[in-house]
């Protein structure tokens, strides 16, 4: 292999580039990214960076002395993958030929239709989004967060600490029920009420009102919630449109085997855009978490360099963390399919506990609130389980 | 400065013992029976490495998975970027002692700011 192109210059792309060099790949390495920035860390965008506790320099993922001997093509989008020519088309008209391709284009924040062009309305995915939101939060006033998922909850928590008046609107009856299940979703989202942040559940959003700047969120029940700033936190969709017609199978992101290989030889996918087969779950799973984007490229790059002659290992169970209202929330495994969840340590009342999800008696997931040590032990056990 | 940590017999293999000094330091007893001491606080954020995941001569931070080499303090991958200090371990009469390094620690930005009297 003489040229490998990595498309997407964020966590998964950088991890893949590092894995390539670590695993002895010595050829030409091109990293293509549509943002103008070098790889930066996203989790702080809803936490310390939004709060003003850390600055842009602290977000850098690369070390100062790091040199991957890569060509960085930044500020340019990939628009297509030509399988026959083995070339990546760029928006600026260039073609980059490559024998190996790493797809790491991540995901983009979903928006609400009809909210374009209204000032004060934000999504949060990129550094530029975070800068704009930070400026608006500095005006104070009333913030309405649409979506009670992890990013929405973190923004609410950060804005609360900044002194804003915060309301969270969630269409589902219980926030976080998808990833955590009903019971634990309810317990974690009770953090909002602990801090006097209003949580409106089971009600959809009809639209926004305002002339040039948003002034209210209109609910489907006819109510309006006054707002000076609105954050739309309704999930993300994988950035794979550029691959249409390339022969790469797209199904909730790039469909991959258990080692990130796509159906096209020499092409792997990693990070938030990749829908990997998960042998533990017996199904494809697109994992939108930091640690997966960080860890899994190692296995995918090994498969790429060995031309698929490696046996895919079993990846560690998915893991994510969240920080809300000063509480560290950690979760590993799959909650779907669990038939019981029990608190093994601590109590849910003081938001300091460890809960284990089981299916037919076997642990399949674990949730910790302010329990890093125990959580780490359980996570290890979960990974060791067959 | 030499500080007594705990009795060797009280620190099973695979476990860590945290010394509540400022900044805190932890002694790790590896599965192979080796002893190492490093700064306990991750250089990324306020996490205790004694709560982490010990494997071979590496400890993985309990929050965001950066791994630190117990022998050198070096960090492998983001989000942490700076190494932790290592300290010399001496065992005398079954008692573990730590000789605290004279180098400056690499504290995470949130703690460094707090010590400087700035925002947490
Ligand atoms: C605000 C926020 C907070 C988060 N907090 C947590 C947390 O607390 N814990 C946790 O586990 N996870 C968290 N995450 C998730 C974590 O950040 C992601 O899982 C991780 O960033 C995924 O990395 P990635 O490289 O796959 O994708 P991304 O980080 O999305 O990077 C993809 C890159 O590819 C670029 N790109 C897209 N299309 C193209 C194209 N056609 N051509 C060229 N470049 C393209 C994008 O612009 C982007 O720069 C958070 C995410 C956000 C946004
Ligand atoms: S706190 Fe240790 S890696 Fe983040």
What does this structure look like?
The complex is a heterodimer of chains A (386) and B (120). Chain A has 386 residues and is α/β, with parallel strands linked by helices. Helices cover 22% and strands 31% of the residues of chain A. Chain A has helices spanning 11-22, 48-51, 127-137, 150-161, 177-180, 182-194, 290-295, 297-305, 372-384; strands at residues 3-7, 28-33, 71-74, 78-82, 87-90, 95-97, 100-103, 107-109, 121-122, 142-146, 165-170, 198-201, 205-209, 216-219, 224-226, 229-232, 236-238, 254-255, 267-269, 274-278, 283-286, 319-324, 327-333, 340-347, 352-359, 362-369. In chain A, the strands form seven sheets. Chain A has a five-stranded parallel β-sheet with strand order 3-2-1-7-19, with helices on one face. A five-stranded parallel β-sheet of chain A has the order 9-16-10-11-12, covered by helices on one side. In chain A, helix 1 (11-22) crosses helix 8. The longest helix of chain A is centred in the middle third of the chain and has 13 residues, at 182-194. Chain A is globular and about 60 Å long. Chain A starts with a strand and ends with a helix. The mean pLDDT of chain A is 96. With 120 residues, chain B is mainly β. The N and C termini of chain B lie far apart (29 Å). The chains are: A alpha/beta (386), B mainly beta (120). Chain A binds chain B through residues 11, 14-15, 18, 41, 43, 48, 52-54, 58, 60-61, 63-64, 290-291, 294-295, 319, 321, 328, 330, 372-373, 375-376, 379-380, and chain B through 47-48, 50-53, 60, 62-65, 77-79, 81, 109-110, 113, 119-120. The site of flavin-adenine dinucleotide (FAD) has 36 residues of chain A, from helix 1, strand 2, helix 7 and strand 22.
């Amino acid at each position: 292999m003489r040229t490998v192109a990595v498309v997407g210059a964020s966590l998964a792309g950088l991890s893949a580039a590092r894995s390539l060099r670590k695993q002895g790949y010595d050829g030409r390495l091109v990293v293509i990214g549509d943002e103008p920035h070098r790889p930066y860390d996203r989790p702080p965008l809803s936490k310390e960076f939004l709060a003003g506790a850390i600055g842009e320099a602290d977000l850098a993922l690369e070390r100062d002395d790091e040199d991957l001997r890569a060509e960085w093509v930044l500020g340019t989008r990939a628009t297509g993958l030509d399988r026959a020519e083995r070339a990546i088309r760029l928006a600026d008209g260039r073609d980059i030929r490559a024998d190996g391709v790493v797809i790491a284009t991540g995901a983009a924040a979903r928006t609400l239709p009809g909210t374009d062009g209204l000032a004060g309305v934000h999504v949060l995915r990129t550094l530029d989004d975070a800068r704009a939101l930070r400026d608006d939060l500095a005006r104070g006033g009333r913030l309405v967060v649409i979506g009670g998922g992890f990013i929405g909850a973190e923004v609410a928590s950060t804005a609360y600490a900044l002194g804003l008046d915060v309301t969270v609107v969630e269409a589902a009856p219980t926030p976080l029920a998808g990833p955590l299940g009903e019971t634990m979703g309810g317990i974690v989202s009770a953090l909002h009420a602990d801090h006097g942040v209003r949580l409106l559940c089971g009600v959809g959003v009809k639209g926004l009102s305002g002339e040039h700047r948003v002034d209210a969120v209109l609910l489907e029940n006819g109510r309006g919630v006054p707002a000076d700033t609105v954050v739309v936190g309704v999930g993300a969709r994988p950035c794979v449109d550029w691959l249409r017609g390339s022969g790469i199978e797209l199904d909730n992101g790039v469909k991959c085997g258990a080692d990130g290989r796509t159906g096209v030889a020499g092409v792997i996918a990693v990070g938030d855009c990749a829908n990997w087969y998960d042998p533990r779950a017996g199904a494809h799973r697109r994992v939108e978490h930091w640690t997966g984007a960080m860890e899994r490229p190692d296995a995918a790059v090994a498969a790429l360099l060995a031309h698929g002659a490696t046996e895919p290992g079993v990846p560690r169970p998915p893991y994510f963390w969240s920080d809300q209202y000063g509480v560290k929330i950690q979760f590993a495994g799959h909650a779907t399919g669990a038939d019981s969840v029990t608190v093994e340590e601590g109590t849910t009342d003081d938001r300091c506990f460890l809960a284990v999800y089981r299916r037919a008696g076997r642990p399949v997931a674990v949730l910790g609130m302010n329990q890093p040590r125990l959580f780490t032990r359980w996570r290890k056990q979960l990974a060791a389980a067959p | 400065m030499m500080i007594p940590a705990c009795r060797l017999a009280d620190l099973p293999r695979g476990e860590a013992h945290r010394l509540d000094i400022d900044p805190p330091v932890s002694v790790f007893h590896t599965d192979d029976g080796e002893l190492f001491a490093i700064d306990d606080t991750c250089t990324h954020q306020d996490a205790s490495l004694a709560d982490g995941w010990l494997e071979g001569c590496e400890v993985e931070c309990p929050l965001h998975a950066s791994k630190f080499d117990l022998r050198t303090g070096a960090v492998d991958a983001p989000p942490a970027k700076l190494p932790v200090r290592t300290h010399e371990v001496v065992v005398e009469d079954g008692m573990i002692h730590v000789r605290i390094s004279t180098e400056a620690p690499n504290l995470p930005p949130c703690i460094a700011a707090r010590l400087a009297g700035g925002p947490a």
